[in-house]
Structure formats: structure tokens, C-alpha cells
């Protein structure tokens, strides 16, 4: 008697990763567009409230200039009008460029010095004992506290401004680097030493890669503090420079130019932080993952 053949039921398999990828990409894109939309909405609400306050004249236009006045100041400082070029002979972009150059040089030197200081503090206990109080002391000082002394030492040209930005940028990255280096996985360090790695090789191949996420956070904080200190650095002989523009406009009660300078600093600061955040995500993509 023939045995009936058993036909296998077709099994439904899960969609391959290639089919799930477009859906995940669409979800990420929608979430990104939602964030952008919320931020644009918040900006529109803020501008509407600003316009409403100035239209109701709750404060004098000298104290709170309307958005139209700030826009007019932007146009005037961005070109040549009635034979006058920009503000004090330089356009707004040129003033901002000078400030960014000062930040790049001063904060860049401060970050490099902070990295070296942090690595030494994290790897050599006696260096940490000697330098930790000095770094903590610098962290507590506001920039204006030592700017006057820097002017006495270096004059009123570029040197005191660069020194101020460097000193302001050094402590955050030094503290972050020292903490991250000291917390490097001991098992990896011992394994590297067991295979004959020299101290410099252990630091370069094991310690610094494991400490990189925290170091990059310290770098972001350092540039943020330096950027907030640029106005203080440019209060003396700061033209050209965006801080000098704000200081000079304050003397003549040009509140529209002052607000414009603040907006320029804020927007460019957000762009710089975005670049540093993208660099952090690229160099340390594993940060925040289990």
C-alpha cells in the first residue's frame, strides 16, 4: 500500500535586513524632520513674541529693539551704505571672522595644552598632585579677573586676547582628559604591557582610544567657554571683532547692533558646536552605546 506523501507547509520567513532597512531609514528621517520642525516652530514663536512685545511698546525701543530694526542693522553692517562700509570700516562677516580666528588660535592652543596636561595628570600620580590644584584654581577664575593682568603684561594688541582664550579653554579639557585617562581599563593596559608594549605605545594604542569620548566632550566644553569669553577678550581694542562691535555699540546706545552681535555670536556658536558634535560622533561612534 503506497504511503501518502507529506507536503511541507510553506513557512513564512522574516523579511531580510535589506527589506527592513528602508523602513528604518524612513523612521530616522521622519524623526529628524520632526525635530527640525519643532525647532523652527519654537523659533517662529519666539520671533512672534518679540514682535508682539515691541509692538505693544512694553519697553522703549531703545531697550528692546524690534526685529525690523535688527534686520535693518544687519543690512547696514553687511555692506556699504552712504559711503560707510559695514560697522567701523568692516562688515559683520569680517568682524565675526576675526573673532573666530582668535578663538581658533587661542582656544586651539589651550586645548592642546589641556590635552598634554590631562594625559600627564592621568598617567603620573605625582604630576596630578602638583597640577590639579592649579587647574582647579584656573577653573574658578572668571576671564575678566585676569584679563587686566594680561593687558599689563602683554599690552592691548592680540596677545592678551589669545592668552585669555587659551587660559579659559585649558581647564575643562585638562580635567576631562585626566579623568578619562585615569579610568582606562586596567585589563587592557596590563595586556598591552604583557606583550611588551612600551609606555608611550600603551598610552597611544590603549589609553587614549578608550578615553577619546570623554576627551571630545572636554574639547567641546573648552571651545564653548572660550567662545563665551570672546566678548570679554575684545572689550579692549577689540575692533575689528564681534565683541568689539557689541562693546562699541553699547557706548552709543545702539541696542539693535548689540542684539545683532549677540545673535551672530549665538548662531555661529551653535554651528561650531554642531561641527564638534559631528566630529565626536565620527571619531567615537560607540559613545553612549552598551
From TrEMBL:
The chain crosses the membrane at residues 36-59, 103-124, 136-156, 162-182, 257-279. PROSITE patterns: ABC_TM1. InterPro entries: MetI-like (IPR000515), MetI-like_sf (IPR035906). It is found in: Cell membrane. Residues 1-25 are annotated as: Disordered. This is ABC transporter permease. Belongs to the binding-protein-dependent transport system permease family. The lineage of its organism: Bacteria, Bacillati, Actinomycetota, Actinomycetes, Kitasatosporales. Residues 96-276 form the ABC transmembrane type-1 domain. Pfam families: BPD_transp_1. Keywords: Cell membrane, Membrane, Transmembrane, Transmembrane helix, Transport. It is a multi-pass membrane protein. One of its GO terms (cellular component) is plasma membrane. One of its GO terms (biological process) is transmembrane transport. It comes from the Bacteria.
Amino acid at each position: 500500500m503506497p504511503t501518502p506523501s507529506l507536503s511541507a507547509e510553506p513557512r513564512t520567513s522574516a523579511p531580510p535586513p535589506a527589506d527592513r532597512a528602508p523602513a528604518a531609514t524612513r523612521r530616522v528621517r521622519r524623526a529628524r524632520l520632526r525635530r527640525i520642525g519643532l525647532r523652527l516652530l519654537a523659533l517662529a514663536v519666539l520671533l512672534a513674541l518679540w514682535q508682539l512685545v515691541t509692538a505693544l511698546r512694553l519697553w522703549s525701543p531703545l531697550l528692546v529693539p524690534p526685529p525690523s530694526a535688527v534686520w535693518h542693522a544687519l543690512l547696514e553692517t553687511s555692506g556699504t551704505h552712504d559711503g560707510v562700509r559695514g560697522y567701523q570700516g568692516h562688515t559683520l562677516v569680517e568682524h565675526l571672522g576675526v573673532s573666530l580666528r582668535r578663538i581658533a588660535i587661542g582656544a586651539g592652543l589651550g586645548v592642546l595644552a589641556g590635552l598634554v596636561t590631562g594625559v600627564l595628570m592621568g598617567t603620573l600620580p605625582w604630576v596630578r598632585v602638583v597640577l590639579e590644584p592649579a587647574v582647579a584654581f584656573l577653573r574658578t577664575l572668571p576671564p575678566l579677573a585676569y584679563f587686566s593682568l594680561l593687558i599689563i603684561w602683554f599690552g592691548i594688541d592680540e596677545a592678551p586676547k589669545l592668552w585669555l582664550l587659551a587660559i579659559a579653554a585649558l581647564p575643562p579639557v585638562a580635567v576631562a582628559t585626566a579623568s578619562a585617562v585615569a579610568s582606562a581599563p586596567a585589563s587592557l593596559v596590563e595586556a598591552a604591557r604583557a606583550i611588551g608594549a612600551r609606555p608611550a605605545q600603551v598610552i597611544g594604542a590603549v589609553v587614549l582610544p578608550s578615553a577619546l569620548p570623554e576627551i571630545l566632550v572636554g574639547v567641546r566644553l573648552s571651545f564653548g567657554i572660550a567662545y563665551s569669553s570672546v566678548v570679554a577678550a575684545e572689550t579692549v581694542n577689540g575692533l575689528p571683532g564681534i565683541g568689539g562691535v557689541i562693546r562699541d555699540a553699547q557706548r552709543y546706545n545702539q541696542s539693535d547692533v548689540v542684539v545683532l552681535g549677540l545673535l551672530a555670536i549665538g548662531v555661529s556658536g551653535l554651528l561650531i558646536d554642531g561641527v564638534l558634535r559631528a566630529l565626536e560622533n565620527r571619531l567615537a561612534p560607540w559613545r553612549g552605546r552598551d
